[in-house]
Design brief:
The chain starts with 26 loop residues before the first helix and ends in an 18-residue tail after the last helix. With 333 residues, it is mainly alpha-helical. It is built from ten helices and no strands. The protein is globular, with a radius of gyration of 23 Å. It holds the Pfam family 7tm_1. One of its GO terms (molecular function) is trace-amine receptor activity.
């Protein structure tokens, strides 16, 4: 609770001791936080919206991998549209929307973050099968199965958050609520359980899958290099394949590193409690956490040539033309 202090401006002056004090951050810090997170929010919404429109509109992009990218873009879009603006509002001003809107905001924000992590796990599993079992991939990973897994990801995120939110609220024994703030109070045991299910286990799965992919990619590259013949064409094809696989392995490593750098500090601070999350360091890790949803479409989509071609068709409004859904965006015509 933000206890009213002598001389402090109250959110609801007429309620006296029942009202919270306005956030104590300086004007410059408040403006800086608003500008930084607003920029991240706008960029997150824009980039993920481009991914959503691209994959949804063009039939040629309706593949299992791209459907996972679409699901990830939807969850990150919600992070940029709901989570980040909500954090800006409740950290820089009094919460005037009431407990119901606070609960709704908390639910949508946590579900979108959980779905984003779940989609990362699915994408890691998809790339693991594609690289480690390429012959089995077409028959194992189908569009129908991918849609079902995406449905399970969102369903489990909603169910878990619905169950966990029943024990989380504004009336804890060690927390006395006041009017004018939106605080999500979690006790230590529940916090550890939440971090384990929503962070430790998913991140462990992602790291293990990507490490396996990296090992297989390097092994395949070495194997092809050892079978280089004197034929110039064969030599060229082999070197090209080797460079492509090593580049893919490095990209996977970057993905894991960025994800860990964005998520680890935030969950560490969140587990430490409300007091630390309100410090300047807590605000920094919050910004870092929010940036992950902005970076995701960059590292998962902007590296694909089809995305750049799709964006060009979207920006020039060519997608409004009849038959644009059948446009060839995978190869240059």
């Amino acid at each position: 609770m933000t206890e009213p202090q002598d001389g402090a401006e109250l959110c609801f002056p007429q309620l006296l001791n029942a009202s919270c004090s306005r956030p104590a951050a300086s004007w410059s810090a408040s403006v800086c936080l608003r500008f930084l997170l607003s920029s991240v929010s706008a960029l997150t919404v824009l980039l993920n919206l481009l991914v959503i429109v691209s994959v949804s509109h063009f039939r040629q992009l309706h593949t299992p991998t791209n459907l996972l990218l679409l699901s990830l873009a939807v969850s990150d879009f919600l992070v940029g549209l709901v989570f980040i603006p909500g954090e800006i509002y409740r950290r820089t001003s009094c919460w005037l929307l009431g407990d119901l809107m606070c609960s709704l905001y908390s639910y949508v924000a946590t579900v979108s973050v959980a779905a984003s992590v779940g989609n990362m796990v699915l994408i890691s599993a998809d790339r693991y099968v594609a690289i480690c079992d390429p012959l089995l991939y077409p028959g194992t990973v189908t569009v129908a199965r991918t849609k079902f897994l995406i449905f399970l990801c969102w369903l489990s995120s909603n169910l878990y958050r619905s169950l966990s939110l029943k024990d989380i609220g504004f009336h804890k024994a060690n927390y006395v609520p006041c009017r004018g703030e939106c605080v999500f109070v979690v006790d230590f045991v529940a916090g550890v359980f939440d971090v384990a299910l929503s962070f430790v286990f998913p991140v462990s799965a992602i790291v293990v899958l990507h490490m396996r992919v990296f090992v297989v990619a390097v092994s395949q590259a070495r194997s092809m290099r050892s079978h280089v013949t004197a034929v110039t064409l064969q030599h060229s094809v082999t070197l090209t394949s080797r460079r492509s696989e090593l580049k893919a392995a490095r990209t996977l490593g970057v993905v894991v590193l960025v994800f860990l750098l964005c998520f680890c500090p935030y969950y560490t601070v969140s587990l430490a409690g409300v007091n630390l999350i309100r410090t300047s360091y807590g605000i920094f890790v919050l910004c870092l956490f929010c940036c992950n949803s902005c970076v995701n479409p960059v590292i998962y989509a902007l590296f694909y040539p089809w995305f750049r071609r799709a964006v060009k068709l979207i920006v020039t409004l060519q997608i409004l033309q009849p038959g644009s859904r059948e446009a060839n965006v995978l190869w240059r015509g």
